[in-house]
Write a structure and sequence with these properties.
The chain has helices at about 5-15, 20-25, 30-35, 45-55, 65-70, 85-95, 100-110, 115-125, 125-150. By secondary structure, the protein is mainly alpha-helical.
Length: about 150
């Protein structure tokens, strides 16, 4: 079952309309409908808000692994098609080779699913600086994965 259907099922099980859920999490009914139809995807923070509003655990809506890989998808070149376990090992290898702070920022964003605002506050940085550093690290990850796949036979 895809994410939108899981949101709709949890909402229905909680006995709420789209409008009632929208009001509980301070978004429009139209946005809830788009999530349920798969036309938009809520971020991890919003998934937590949805889960709280529906009195369920976030994992009943989306697994942590699915959420992490969804977040990381933007960093992975389309030509890289690896099983999750292999991809996880290669990403870990990449992160071990990065400067500590860059790896910490990346882990907080893509593994712990913290928002850029939370990371900026934690590290005493501006959100634009966090975005810029994450973008550069993501580009390096993409290049690393592409090179590893080409050179190591993945």
């Amino acid at each position: 079952m895809d994410l939108g259907k899981r949101i709709a099922a949890a909402r229905t099980a909680a006995g709420l309309t789209q409008q009632e859920l929208a009001e509980k999490i301070f978004v429009s009914r139209d946005l809830v409908a788009k999530w349920e139809q798969g036309r938009r995807r809520p971020d991890h923070g919003m998934i937590e808000a949805i889960a709280e509003a529906l009195s369920v655990k976030p994992e009943s809506i989306i697994s942590r692994e699915e959420c992490v890989f969804r977040e990381l998808r933007s960093c992975i070149p389309a030509s890289v098609d690896l099983p999750a376990e292999t991809l996880s090992k290669l990403i870990s290898r990449f992160l071990r080779e990065q400067p500590r702070k860059e790896a910490d920022l990346f882990i907080r964003r893509y593994y712990l699913l913290e928002s850029n605002a939370e990371i900026a506050l934690r590290f005493g940085m501006g959100q634009n600086q966090v975005r810029s550093r994450l973008s550069k690290t993501a580009k390096r990850l993409g290049k690393f994965l592409k090179e590893v796949c080409e050179n190591e036979g993945y």
